[in-house]
Specification:
By secondary structure, the protein is α/β, with parallel strands linked by helices. It folds into 2 domains: 2-114 and 162-213, P-loop containing nucleotide triphosphate hydrolases (Rossmann fold); 125-159, no CATH class. 49% of the residues lie in helices and 15% in strands. BIS(adenosine)-5'-pentaphosphate (AP5) binds at residues 7, 9-15, 31-32, 35, 52-53, 56-59, 64, 83-84, 86, 90, 121-122, 124-125, 134-136, 159, 168, 196-198, 201.
């Protein structure tokens, strides 16, 4: 099963992709995480991406496609793409890559969340500096800001500040929102209400995934 999770910054793509990975046994490919990893390691691709990410802009397609190349697994398991595609040229490139392997995209889940909720989520997000697990300030018990999985400190992402969040939402509306129409026309888009608890959202996504399989 080849799935894309679409949605604005803070819609819960990463959170839900992790749950789907476990439930459906798919590979989770998170473009934002891949980028943060190469930026941290200061590789040449990371150096090319850094400034764009800091400003909340899209990283050039050439960098994104280079990173994606080795990540997409077309065999057995299938994948969940989170953060890719983010514009029409990336969506067409994905179709091309799948075509070459005689595969296709099966399902696009579009998470719908109001802007005020997105902003609240992003301002309160903390991520583990080692394993990348995602938290929200409101769900952390006690004063200790360390990861439950690996014990490393939790940090705020550089791009989770008011100005950059605003920019990221603008970029989403201009470049990524048109993909909703692109996938609707292909008949594979399913809209999912992304507000409510993480469990509620997950159940809604699972209903769409199950009805796709029937
Ligand atoms: P990326 O890392 O992909 O950022 P994003 O799309 O802005 O998405 P986020 O990670 O901010 O949000 P999310 O939807 O995954 O939400 P999450 O689950 O974490 O990309 C970063 C940058 O990289 C881009 O700005 C760009 O520069 C570059 N980039 C990436 N891909 C690119 C591409 N293809 N082309 C070009 N450039 C690219 O949840 C957010 C918070 O909400 C968390 O705290 C979570 O705990 C909480 N939360 C989640 N669900 C719920 C819920 N149901 N109820 C309450 N809280 C919830």
């Amino acid at each position: 099963m080849h799935t894309v999770l679409l949605g604005p910054p803070g819609a819960g793509k990463g959170t839900q992709a992790e749950r789907l990975k476990v439930r459906l046994g798919l590979v989770h490919i998170a473009m934002g995480n891949l980028l943060r990893e190469v930026v941290k390691k200061k590789t040449s691709l990371g150096e090319k991406a850094r400034a764009f990410m800091e400003e909340g802009k899209l990283v050039p397609d050439s960098v994104i496609l280079e990173l994606l190349k080795n990540e997409i697994e077309f065999e057995k398991k299938g994948f969940i793409l989170d953060g890719f595609p983010r514009n029409l040229s990336q969506a067409r490139k994905l179709d091309e890559l799948l075509d070459k392997e005689a595969e296709k995209l099966d399902l696009v889940i579009n998470l719908e969340v109001k802007e005020a909720v997105l902003i609240e989520r992003l301002k309160g997000r903390l991520i583990c500096s080692e394993c990348g697990r995602v938290y929200h300030k409101s769900n952390i018990d006690g004063p200790s800001k360390t990861c439950k999985d690996c014990g490393a400190p939790l940090l705020q992402r550089n791009d989770d500040n008011s100005d950059i969040i605003k920019k990221r939402i603008e970029v989403y509306l201009e470049h990524t929102h048109p993909l909703i129409d692109y996938y609707r026309k292909k008949g594979i888009l399913r809209n999912v209400q992304g507000e409510g608890t993480s469990e509620e959202v997950f159940q809604r996504i699972m209903e769409k995934a199950v009805s796709y399989k029937l």
